[in-house]
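Structural prep section.
Before we set up the soaks we want a predicted structure of the protein with magnesium ion in place, mainly to decide which crystallisation condition to try first. Input record follows.
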Amino acid sequence: MDAKDDSQPGPTVGEVGELEVLDRIVRRLPAGDPVIGPGDDCAVLAAPDGRYVVTTDMMVHGPDFRWAWSSPEDIGWKAAATNLSDVAAMGATPTGLVIALAAPQDTPVSVLERFADGVRLAVEALAPACGVVGGDLSTSSTFTVSVTAFGDLGGRAPVLRSGAEPGDVVAVSGELGRAARGLARLFRDGVDAAGEPSRAATVASGADADSDALRQRRPVPPIADGVAAAGAGATAMLDLSDGLAIDGGRLARASRVTLDLDPTVVEEGPALHGGEDHGLLATFPPGMPLPAGFRRIGSVRERGEHDVLRGGRPVPTSGWDPYADWDGAAG
Ligand SMILES: [Mg+2]
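Run finished without errors. Recording the tokens verbatim:
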């Protein structure tokens, strides 16, 4: 276990055993309002719409997060928030989360309790009607968490990526580029002399307290804005997990259109190419007021040679890669 920011870690998962660990975690999680909740073989959720949306997203120590940079609370928050964001991007309201987690045997139980606290804080802040309705625990040499989220469409049509029409307005909700700036800060200042992520360097440099790095560790997706966009007639929508250029490219290809971004509103750099912001990108019919939270950033054109333009010039629809960027700076 290398969640190093816990100086009094207490007993480990292996010492305490699965049943007690589960008991200590479940009581910290948000309950929500399932028909049948945790403790039976399955949870039962209401689906008043007659359909439900479902999504899943996994986080693995190494490729997806580093203990040197993220606390257990951060990981719980982010695992919940990224899944809630995908539900919102369909125009649905999150109704339940199912969480599967595998931790090394020597993981302090307190780390899993703090993970659960992060899940609870995210749900309370972002989707208070949602709850954790079930899950599973296992062991693995690599800390791994998988969250599945369910959501209700409330009788509305789901908002797909494929519905944008030429003439539509392109709009976003949420801030652009902060998570990428935060991750760049961690890669620059939160590493040791050998270039490895380092808790000591992160704290000593102040990168730990950087507000953009906090956004990278704890994204704040505008969950309610997804339902508002659906209600306002959004023609297409997705959440910004890989950056405006890549995700805009996905929406453009699915809808068989070209997005033209306004260069006076969208700057080059992290706002265009940075990932993990988890705002919402949506298109709306022209000539109508945008729902609260959304601002215009461009317009939809007939499908051309490129997926995304900025002021008429092609935007590469590849993501900003912090590893490549940082390697370049170091080398
Ligand atoms: Mg998504």
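Observations: The longest strand covers residues 93-103.
Flagged for discussion at group meeting.
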